[in-house]
Amino acid sequence: MIEIAFRLAGGIGLFLMGMIMLTDGLKAFAGEALRRALMRFTGTPLKAFGSGVLVTALVQSSSATTVTVIGFVSAGLLTFPQAVGVVMGASLGTTGTGWIVAVLGLKVSVGFYALPLVGAGAFLRLLGTGRWKSLGLALAGFGLIFIGIEALQTGMQGLAGVFNLARLPASGLLGHVLAMLVGVGLTVIMQSSSAAVATTLTALHTNTVNFEQAASLVIGASIGTTVTGVLAAIGGSVPAKRTALAHVLFNAATGLIAIVLLPGLLWLIQWEQEHVGLEAGATSLAAFHSTFIALGVAIFLPGVEWFSRGIEWLLPEKGPVLTRHLDNSLLSVPAVALEATRRALREIAGELFDGVRTGLAATPASSEEARRTQVRQALERTQEFFTKIPPVTEDAPLSELRVAQIHAMDHLLRLQQRLAVPADLRPLLTHPQLQPALVRSREALQLAADGLRGNAPADWLAAVEQCALELADQQRQNRPVVLRQTAAGEWEPAQALAALDAWRWLERLGYHAWRISNYLGGDGRPEPAPHERTSA
Fold first, then answer.
1. Is 68 within 8 Å of 42 (Cβ atoms)?
2. Which domain-ending residue is among 261, 289, 314?
3. DSSP secondary structure of 443-495
4. Which terminus of the chain, N or C, has less C-beta within 10 A?
5. How many Cα atoms within 13 Å fall on the side-chain side of residue 141?
6. Domain for residue 14, yes or no?
7. Average pLDDT of the residues in 207-224
8. Residue 49 predicted with pLDDT over 90
C-alpha cells in the first residue's frame, strides 16, 4: 500500500507540476498576445464564448482563464456579460485535457519518450533568453504531464488489486451524487480539475472504477474547479465576485443537470459507441465530459444577458464608483493594473471637468462640495493603488503608460485645486472682455469630458488642444491691452490685476484639460507636445 500511495502521490504531483509549468510557460510566452486576443474577440457573448474555449485550450487551464477574466472584468476591460461568455467557454475548453490524456497519455506509453522533452525544455529554460525561457518551461511541463500519467497508471493498477471501487454500488441517484461529491473533493484538494479528470481517466483505464462512477467523478471535478475562481475573488471588487459567482452557478447547474440526466447521457455515449465508432473506456469518458458541458452551454449561453442581470441584481455595485476598477488582485499583472488605473483616472477626470465647468456658472450648485470630496478621495485611492503596481522597466510600452499616468495625476491634482473659483475672481467672470475666454474654457472642459467618456467626435483631442492654445493666446493678447487701459483710467488697478488673474485662471483650466486628455485619451500613450509648462 505504501508503494501504491507513493506512486499515486508522485504521479499526481508530476501531473500538477506539468500543468502548472505548461500554463505559466505558455502565459508568459504568448500571454500578451492571448490577452489581446481575449479582448479583441469578446464583442458578443458568442465571441466571448469562443475566446474562452480557444484561450483555455491553449493554456490548458480553465482556472487560469477564469482568474484572468476576473482581473479583466475588475479592470473594466470586459463587460460582465462578456466575462460570463468567456467563463462558459473556459469550462468547455478545459475538456481538451481529458482528450489529450485519453487519446495520447493512456493509449501510448509516452512517459519514456517524454523525458527528452523535459530535458530540452529545462535546457531552454536555463540557456534561453527572453520569451524562449518561457517556452522551455512550457515544453518541460508538457513532458512532465505524460510522465505523471504513466506514474498514475502504475499506481492505479496496484490500487485496483487492493481496493476496487467498481465493486461498490454505483447505480441510483444517491450513488451518483456521492461519487460526484468525491470528484468535488478531489478537485478542491488538487486545485485542478484537469488533474482530477486525468486521475479519473487513469482509474477507469485500469478498471479501478466503472464508467458510471467515472462519469459522476468527472461531473464533480467540473463543479470543484470553481473553487479557484472563488478564492481569487475573495476581497476583490464587485465585478470580480460577480464573475466568480457566475462560474460557480454555471458549473454547479451544469453538473446537477448532468447528474439528473445521467441515464440519458450514458445512453447517448453507448449509442455513439455502437453507431459512430466511439471507443469505449477513457475516450468515451472524455466525450461524456465534453457533452455535458456543451449541454450546459446550450442552455445558458442564449440567455447570458438575463443570467448576467440576475447576478448583477444579487450583487449590486457598492462603494466609490470612480475607483470601482481598482482591485488589488490586479497588481500581479502590471499591464492590467495600469489599464485599471487609466480607466479610473479617465472617470475621475470626467467628473472633475464637469465639476470645474459647473463651478464657472454664475450660481454654482450646492452639491459641489460633495463632488470635491468624491474627486479628492478617488484621486487619493488611485495614487495609493498606482504606487503598488510593480515596476515594468523591461517593457517600454508599459513604461510609457506609467509615465503618462504620472503626468495625468499631476495635472489632475493641479486642476482639483481649481474646482472652486476664488471669491475675488468670480465677479470678474461676468465682465464682457472675459466672456470669450470663459466660453472657450467651458468648451474645452466639455469636449475633454465627452472625449474621455467616448461621446465625442474622433478629432476631439485636437479640438481640446485648439481651445487650450486659443485661451493661451487670449491671455497673452489681453494682458498688454488691460495694462494700457488701466494706465488710461479705464480699469481700477486692483480690478485690472484681478482680471489678469481671471484670464490666467481660465487659461490654466484649458491647459490642464488639454494635457490630461493628451495623457489619458486614445490608447493612453501621449501625443508629442510642443512644450510642457510646469507652472500651476
1. no
2. 314
3. HHHHHHHHHHTT-S-TTHHHHHHHHHHHHHHHHHHHHHHHHHHHHTTSS-HHH
4. N
5. 22
6. yes
7. 86
8. no
Q: How many CB atoms are located within 10 Å of the residue 259 CB?
A: 20
Q: What percent of the chain has pLDDT over 70?
A: 80
Residue 134: all three cell numbers together: 518561457
Query: What distance separates the 2 farthest-apart alpha carbons in the chain?
Result: 111
User: What three-state secondary structure class fits 498?
Assistant: helix
Q: Any long-range contacts for 427-431 (C-beta under 8 Å, 24+ apart)?
A: 428/495, 428/498, 428/499, 428/502, 429/360, 429/362, 429/502, 430/362, 431/499, 431/502
Residue 293 half-sphere exposure, CB side, CA atoms within 13 Å?
29
Report in angstroms the alpha-carbon separations of 51 from 47, 86, 108, 364, 487.
6, 6, 31, 49, 72
Cα distances from 148 to residues 9, 34, 120, in angstroms, run: 10, 27, 18
Count of structural domains within the chain: 2
Q: Are residue 374 and residue 306 in the same domain, yes or no?
A: no
Range of the domain at 27: 2-314
What is the domain-level CATH number for residue 476? 1.20.58
Q: At 440, is the secondary structure helix, strand, or coil?
A: helix
pLDDT of residue 515: 93
Cell numbers of 377, please?
478621495
Q: Are 51 and 44 in contact (CB under 8 A)?
A: no
